[in-house]
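Chapter review: from sequence to fold.
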Amino acid sequence: MHTPAYLEANGSRIEYFARGTGSPVVLLHSTASSSAQWLALTEQLCARHRVVALNLLGYGNSSNWDGRGPFRLQHETAPLDALVRELGQPAHLIGHSYGGAVALAFARTRPHLVRSLALYEPVAFHLLRGGDARDRTALAEIRRIAANVRGALRTGHYAAGARHFVDYWSGPGTWAMMPPGRRQAVVARLPKIALDFHATLHEPAVLSDFAALRMPRMLLRGARTTVPAQRICDALGKVWSDARQLRLEGAGHMAPLTHAPLVNALLAGFLEEQAPLAYAARSPEERRIPA
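The token string follows.
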């Protein structure tokens, strides 16, 4: 994805790739992935947008977490804050899975920096707390997956933990079909995978905290996804009755990769509807990012 750039925020060095000109779009990848998952979407959008795909902490050549205090989503949103301010105007945010959870946290705490929000199955597991019996079942399920990852780290069985993680999200047998190099990359990222689970399970925000978001929103999900992802999308859908909500038949949690042409077309269409000319026509004072 061309030449990387870097930014420093709160002692972390974040790698990102930027292309194009126009209203900024920031792309946030899933756990165990990287900015490379957005290559095709970047090509599709860069003619009309400044597209920035960053590597979250511990991915690509971004810094690992410094280990101070418990890991929280705010460790991911701080560099994102610096990036958007560097871009000079509010950005469209697109996030998948863990990247969607980060985008949600950023939009909740810094809504003035977010022009629109498009999410594919954000794994905001904290939204399952305090729900009904189905939410409690879903929360117990994802806690078991997280515990399996932690157990693999504790016992040194990294490959087994990585296999369980991959097959849970992508379907049984996916790990066996992956090339060795890709398997090794996931195994190497297992410590960060555990941190991603911790952050999304322990985020203090509750569902009502997201009801006040008013920027244009789109929420995508697959019809063949996991129960926790379904329940999170159901919960957000209830408080976002005015948002665009779409269910993709035949798709699972990893649809931004397995069904990329369809997902990318939906994301590009959503951005096209956000009337960039109307935003550009605002006064310089209105376009300036508030402190």
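Two observations follow directly from the output. DSSP finds 13 helices and eight strands in the chain. Strands lie at 5-9, 12-19, 23-28, 49-54, 91-96, 114-120, 217-222, 244-248.
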